[in-house]
Specification:
The strands form two sheets. Strands 1, 2, 3, 6, 7, 8, 9, 10, 11 and 12 form a ten-stranded antiparallel β-sheet that branches. The termini are far apart. Helices cover 6% and strands 55% of the residues. It has 165 residues and is mainly β.
Amino acid sequence: MSYPRTIRNYNAFLDGISYFGKTSKAKLPALKIKTAAFRGAGMDAEVAQDQGMEAFQAELTFKEFLPEVIKKFGRKERLVLRPAAQGEDDFTADAWVFTLGGRLTTNEFDDLDPGNQSDMKIMMDVDYYRIEKNGEELVLIDVENGKRVIGGFDQLADIRAAMGV
């Protein structure tokens, strides 16, 4: 039997700066297609038609209030999350890289409660999303440039070409 390779740990980089040991949780954007229901004459049921992707949002929780992060509020930044996965049968690690670009739209501070940790959470509205595993690009979504590359296939290439882009 082979055990699953699970995420054992991660590091976060914001604007190229490592926050090793300073973050406690990260939430990656969900990949979700926006659909519209269609049922034409003679069809016995509705089908979902691709209408593009839904908006992406990422979150990162810091274990302290960091002035340099607070000052980035409202700016477009690059966030890189690097989790490492490992199985139970060996000590090799899979390198995952999630590269996110977008605007930092929220700084949320925990309640100030003496004797308890007060974390700071930032949220990013994402317009660039790239997923790699061990150097292989799995997903590249570049909203501003109209790209949706999944498994090496650009699903929007013909749309761009038809529009003359």
